[in-house]
Amino acid sequence: AQSVSQHNHHVILSEAASLELGCNYSYGGTVNLFWYVQYPGQHLQLLLKYFSGDPLVKGIKGFEAEFIKSKFSFNLRKPSVQWSDTAEYFCAVNIKNTGKLIFGQGTTLQVKP
Amino acid sequence: SAVISQKPSRDICQRGTSLTIQCQVDSQVTMMFWYRQQPGQSLTLIATANQGSEATYESGFVIDKFPISRPNLTFSTLTVSNMSPEDSSIYLCSAGGAGGNSGNTIYFGEGSWLTVV
């Protein structure tokens, strides 16, 4: 069965530190890839997405992610985090363009001021 | 992008009762789905809401417990039946396939936070 794995369950960083959250998926065919963010007490919001083309995609709030097909990975990065980036981050994969998303377990990011 | 509205946003429900959650999209979409997010966990797909026909349920979810309707391309409902405390979760509606620049981007509603007592 297809799955999505996020390696970091809980990450604590100081402001201005760089961030990289890992995401790997298990499926050999065409995928659409997403990162969503859920701020405390708020709903799920789309950070960025990859469908095709340039494997380095840029999203909102300075986030970017790189799709590496050979590694089945879609890691999320931000050069300098802010306290306001404290949130839960979810990687998700859309298999075969069905629209059905398989989510990773989520990573809790805590940024200390 | 598609804007998705859910009602109710929160509710406290009595054990054994049923609650229907409504999901309204501001544009016609080809795909609508319902997810559950239990406390401290990730999202799990409950079912695909099919317009004009029975929903397609994922393993572990059944129509008797989670009946779903989708009468048109912009609206769907999910009912959580005969609730127990284990059903306390956030229930999220998602939609996509609006076409144009959105492609198959999947958007989510704000969720309906249900607490069963």
Explain how this protein is built.
The complex is a heterodimer of chains A (113) and B (117). Chain A has 113 residues and is mostly beta strands. Chain A has one domain: Immunoglobulins (Immunoglobulin-like, Sandwich), CATH 2.60.40. Chain A contains no helices and twelve strands. Chain A has strands at 4-5, 10-14, 19-21, 24-25, 31-38, 44-50, 56-58, 64-68, 73-78, 87-95, 101-103, 107-112. In chain A, the strands form three sheets. In chain A, strands 2, 5, 6, 10, 11 and 12 form a six-stranded mixed sheet that branches. Chain A has a four-stranded antiparallel sheet with strand order 3-9-8-7, with no helix packed on it. Chain A is globular, with a radius of gyration of 13 Å. Chain A starts with a strand and ends with a strand. Chain B has strands at residues 4-7, 10-13, 19-25, 31-37, 43-49, 56-57, 68-72, 75-80, 89-96, 106-108, 112-116. Chain B has one domain (4-116): Sandwich (Immunoglobulin-like). In chain B, the strands form two sheets. In chain B, strands 2, 4, 5, 6, 9, 10 and 11 form a seven-stranded mixed sheet that branches. Chain B has a four-stranded antiparallel sheet with strand order 1-3-8-7, with no helix packed on it. Chain B starts with a strand and ends with a strand. Chain B is built from no helices and eleven strands. Chain B has 117 residues and is mainly beta. The A-B interface holds A 32, 34, 36, 42-46, 49, 51, 90, 92, 94, 97-106 and B 30-31, 33, 35, 41-45, 48, 92, 94, 96-97, 103-111.
